[in-house]
Specification:
The complex is a heterodimer of chains A (368) and B (147). Chain A has 368 residues and is an alpha+beta fold. Chain A is 47% helix and 14% strand. Chain B is an alpha/beta fold and 147 residues long. The N and C termini of chain B lie far apart (50 Å). Classes of the chains: A alpha+beta (368), B alpha/beta (147).
Chain lengths: 368, 147
């Protein structure tokens, strides 16, 4: 008897309309039975040419467009773009505004990781975590809404400040949220983190070594899940991140489980940062008016921050006018997705879904 | 660190460096495009430099030339360096750095797609964001936006 059943390679399409591709992503998968021989991501279905759009808009007009890149972390998209403008224009930011920004950025990171928590569960057939994650995310969106009126696309960061100061009652509500989220995290762990089926489906699956992850320019939780302690908040501190006591979350399993655990730990670290920022928030009211016309001096700047998905960078070149001469968006989702093929070869097609989920990409940011 | 890196490049490749500048505290080195990959290999493999992380590749259309910009980091020490090459705008071609950093594969495809720079020796140089039959490269300054 032959030891191996003779099979034929089959090519199938996954996406661009598929619930587990997390958006309009198409994968060309070559299968040998159930085993993935190759997977070629085909991206660009959501390409809007934002780098070209930037050249046709003033600096201020472009801020709302950044919201539409990684739409699960719009605050962070605002932050990196406005940060680049401030660096090039040497625009001062009041300390109170910096602390408000940190609170918003960390709330946003948690909101994004909560979606990850839910969708990771969904990808593996568990529907309840999604409801739990969404429930707490709602509280964060309420905080955003009471501050700037929007629940998804905030247009909140402005050169030299933020569009609105914190409204009355924000601080109490934020503190109550932090307390509640800490308790709920235990529930999350009971439901998913310590779930035997979940562990079996993620531990040792979708391995990428630290060396390979670096070689593929991966960043964010997907890099830290391979044990590399690189976080832009620590490496190149921006805003007031150097004033808080927190640590970089890393796990060295190099697998889907480690990438998951990094994000769960990051939620805890973000809660710590938010609590400290609320304590240290300078009192007073923020008087801020968005400049109607903003011209930046001739020159260039590269600014990067740690977004929910990794090393998010903006390379801005100014010719001295009120529009960018060139703007480049360094998208962590795009670059992390470039390593997918390497990570899925040899695994079962059902694992491919979990491996892709563990990269936590957002197609708005992949395609730009 | 910047001085050390500059000296290391100049000593090993006396003819490679065209000019240097410091922008935001980061060393920027304008290189002879023909020596780009050799310099990259050196920056990555030399134990004292070890620029193991390719953070970003992008290109700028300066109307008279196209400049490709490479941004590297040593993740252990957080040292940074930026390499730049000027290419002929009518025939922008440079060797691919994919053999040095795998992360360059998609980033070079993006630069090819949007700016029209051809990376010689790239394993799979196709458009990545735009459809395969798209005409032109939108980030060129003379690109006419179709209706």
């Amino acid at each position: 008897m032959s030891s191996r059943i003779k099979t034929e390679l089959v090519e199938i399409n996954m996406g661009p309309q598929h619930p587990s591709t997390h958006g309009v992503l198409r994968l060309e998968i070559t299968l040998d039975g159930e085993v993935v021989v190759d997977a070629k991501p085909d991206v660009g279905y959501l390409h809007r040419g934002i780098e070209k759009l930037a050249e046709m808009r003033t600096y201020i007009q472009f801020i709302p467009i950044t919201d539409r890149l990684d739409y699960l972390s719009s605050m962070l998209q605002n932050a990196v773009y406005v940060g680049a403008i401030e660096k090039l224009g040497q625009i001062e930011v009041p300390e109170r505004a910096e602390f408000i920004r940190v609170i918003m950025m960390e709330l946003q990171r948690i909101a994004s990781h909560l979606i990850f928590y839910g969708s990771m569960g969904l990808d593996l057939g568990a529907t309840t975590p999604f409801l739990y994650g969404m429930r707490e995310r709602e509280d964060i969106l309420d905080l955003f809404e009471m501050t700037c009126g929007a629940r998804l696309t905030y247009n909140y960061f402005r050169p030299g400040g933020v569009s609105h100061d914190l409204p009355d009652g924000f601080i109490e509500k934020a503190r109550a949220y932090v307390k509640k989220q800490r308790e709920r995290l235990r529930e999350y762990d009971d439901l998913l983190t310590n779930n035997e089926i979940f562990i079996l489906r993620t531990r040792g699956i979708g391995i990428i070594s630290a060396e390979d992850a670096i070689n593929y320019s991966m960043s964010g939780p997907s890099l830290r899940g391979s044990g590399v302690a690189y976080d832009v908040r620590k490496a190149d501190p921006y805003s007031v991140y150097d004033r808080f006591d927190w640590s970089i979350a890393t796990f060295d399993g190099c697998d889907s489980l480690s990438r998951y655990l990094v994000r769960m730990q990051e939620i805890r670290e973000s809660l710590n940062i938010i609590e400290q920022a609320l304590d240290m928030l300078p009192p007073g009211r923020l008087e801020y008016k968005t400049p109607q016309r903003l011209k930046l001096p001739e020159g260039e700047v590269y600014h990067h921050i740690e977004s929910s998905r990794g090393d998010l960078g903006v390379y801005l070149i100014s010719d001295g006018s009120d529009k960018p001469y060139r703007l480049k968006w360094r998208s962590p989702s795009f670059i992390n997705l470039g390593a997918l093929a390497k990570m899925v070869r040899g695994w079962k097609v059902a694992d491919l879904v979990a491996i892709l989920g563990s990269l936590d990409i957002v197609l708005g940011e992949v395609d730009r | 660190m910047s001085e050390f890196v500059e000296k290391a490049i100049r000593n090993t490749f006396p003819d490679a460096v065209r000019e240097t500048a410091e922008i935001d505290g980061v060393l920027n080195v304008k290189l002879d495009p023909l020596l780009l990959v050799a310099v990259c290999r050196f920056l990555r493999s030399e134990p004292e430099l070890a620029f193991d992380y390719l953070a970003d590749i992008t290109a700028i259309d300066w109307r008279d030339r196209i400049e490709v910009v490479y941004r590297m980091t040593n993740l252990a020490t957080n040292a940074k360096v930026v390499l730049r090459v000027d290419l002929d705008r009518n025939k922008p071609e440079v060797d691919s750095v994919v053999p040095v950093w795998r992360g360059a594969e998609w980033q070079e495809r993006e630069v090819y797609d949007l700016m029209g720079v051809v990376f010689r020796g790239h394993p799979d140089l196709r458009r990545i964001l735009l459809p395969d039959d798209w005409e032109g490269h939108p980030l060129r300054k003379d690109y006419v936006i179709p209706d």
